[in-house]
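ok new one. same drill as before - structure tokens go in, u give me an amino acid for every spot. 321 of them this time. try not to just spam alanines like last time pls lmao
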């Protein structure tokens, strides 16, 4: 597996923010955390909101794991003086797909009912107000699965814009449910026993909501390589977002980015997503930007990166207008 750059992994990328951590729900006495990132130089008044979901195949990862949090997103949000909500959620295989979507729904309930109260408490003033009319939902890799599910299930018009970065969303495809040679970041084929051993070692009722990679990455890769993804996610229609789009009448403007040589999530996944989007929502703006690179190809990108500039313009136009 390739080694990420120091810039991509450094916690210093969070330095422009004050980070507050609380929980938005509890399952089996296990609190599930949510981080609120507020720019240190934030302007008073109504501020737009970013709700961000982390990747990790829904098996690994954590809200503030720096390698999975694109630096350009933090830079852009700070520049816009916006607030970020980034949450953990139950992970596979201890949890199921339906458990994860339940957590996402509960997170949204917490955002709309308690986020403003929490901010008022930690700031000891009412000078900072969340602008719920300008919500950008962004996900990287499998975080895009949760971002897309949010757009499909939250009330129409409540999400202003969606951004899916190298999205792992076509979860019903043969890529994840048929065994054949797949080598994410060059990883050789792993035995299916890795998944089975992990499941055997799991205590009944265990709740896992974060894991700092490389923890559990071998479980995720084995699950995918051996075609066992839906075995643990579940195959209910509600868990397949591209298929679910057929039953949803409206979606927000959407940005999709992907690396052409992605070895983790094939670029065809984004192409299928955008094709389905254009077919169902021909009058809703959608932008696909495919660039050279592997999964997480934007790790070195900044707001000065040339290929990113049109994406930023698209976000500003459809999120902040």
């Amino acid at each position: 597996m390739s080694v990420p750059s120091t810039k991509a992994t450094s916690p210093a990328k969070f330095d422009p923010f004050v980070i507050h951590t609380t929980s938005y729900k509890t399952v089996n006495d296990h609190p599930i955390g949510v981080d609120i990132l507020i720019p240190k130089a934030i302007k008073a008044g109504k501020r737009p909101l970013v709700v961000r979901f982390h990747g990790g195949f829904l098996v690994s990862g954590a809200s503030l794991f720096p390698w999975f949090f694109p630096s350009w997103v933090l830079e852009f949000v700070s520049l816009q003086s916006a607030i970020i909500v980034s949450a953990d959620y139950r992970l596979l295989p201890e949890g199921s797909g339906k458990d994860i979507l339940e957590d996402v729904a509960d997170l949204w309930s917490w955002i709309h009912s308690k986020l403003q109260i929490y901010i008022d408490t930690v700031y000891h003033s009412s000078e900072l107000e969340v602008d719920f009319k300008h919500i950008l939902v962004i996900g990287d890799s499998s975080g895009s699965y949760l971002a897309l599910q949010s757009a499909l299930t939250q009330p129409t018009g409540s999400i202003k814009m969606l951004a899916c970065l190298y999205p792992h969303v076509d979860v019903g495809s043969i890529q994840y449910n048929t065994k054949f040679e797949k080598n994410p970041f060059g990883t050789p084929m792993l035995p299916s026993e890795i998944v089975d051993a992990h499941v055997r070692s799991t205590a009944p009722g265990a709740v896992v909501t974060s894991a700092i990679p490389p923890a559990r990455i071998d479980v995720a890769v084995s699950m995918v390589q051996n075609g066992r993804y839906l075995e643990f996610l579940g195959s209910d229609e509600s868990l397949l977002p591209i298929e679910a789009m057929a039953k949803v009448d409206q979606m927000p403007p959407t940005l999709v980015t992907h690396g052409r040589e992605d070895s983790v999530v094939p670029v065809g996944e984004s192409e299928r997503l955008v094709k389905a989007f254009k077919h169902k929502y021909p009058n809703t703006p959608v932008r696909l930007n495919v660039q050279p690179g592997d999964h997480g190809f934007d790790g070195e990108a900044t707001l000065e990166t040339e290929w990113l500039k049109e994406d930023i313009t698209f976000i500003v136009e459809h999120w902040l207008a």
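The CA atoms of residues 47 and 130 lie 5 Å apart. and btw DSSP finds eleven helices and eight strands in the chain.
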